[in-house]
Amino acid sequence: MQLLSTSIADEFFREGFVLLRDVANADAVLSDFLVEWRSRSDLPFARRVVLDNLARIPHKSCQDAIETDHMSLHFEMGLPLIPTEEVSRVHALICLHIPKGENASDVATRLLQIDGLLMEQKDVESNLVKYCKKNGAGWKDFNSGRLLCAAQLFDAMQENCELGYMREDRIAQWFNKDAKRASQKGAQKEMDFFAKFGINLRAKEKSFVLKPGDLLIIDNLRVAHGRKGRRPAEELVQYLYGARDISKVEIDSVRERTVHFLTDFL
Ligand SMILES: [Fe+2]
Is domain 2-263 given the CATH code 2.60.120 in the classification? Predict the structure, then answer.
């Protein structure tokens, strides 16, 4: 098992994600992977990362998440960029699994690595901080200091941001509703937005139709995920690995690491 998790981790650290097939015991594979991941991760709190949440998704109660046929590229619980509380909860890994023997739909999981996305941009860190202070995910007066969607990385680089109206929306509504709350074709809108910055989303993103036995392990702070199609309720088992005691200084280091991936990645 140890050898297996070493090669899995090699691919994970190279790509920001790894897709394993024919997994009979996801719990065992993941706990083995976690040991290897902790020893190699550059996150200062890696050793405190544990299984924080295990759930069947989409939840039956999340009607909007189930009914939309497009989920824009996002970071689970947001990408933390500025510290807003003494201690924060951060999810480092998101793992998606369909147990063997269960049914699987043809809905696709989409992935986008942030590596090098803002290589051509100037003042990336200060623009992200400024944007996050104004448009960080939250509601009413609460601002979590996080970016929810990958598109916001580009929006933050614009003088006049255009996605601010979505700040308080749930992820399933991003790009699917306009500023007047009218429905729109989210997939096309998201693609058009990225195209403005020279990114051909269709070519750049990776997508997988998960089959029974598949286990997808994603670095939630480096790779955004989304969905194409309407997923049946509770089709996936979702494991979220994180820590709930992340200090302000550690959030600062997450931001610096994010900026490094966005700008210096070769
Ligand atoms: Fe998600």
Answer: no
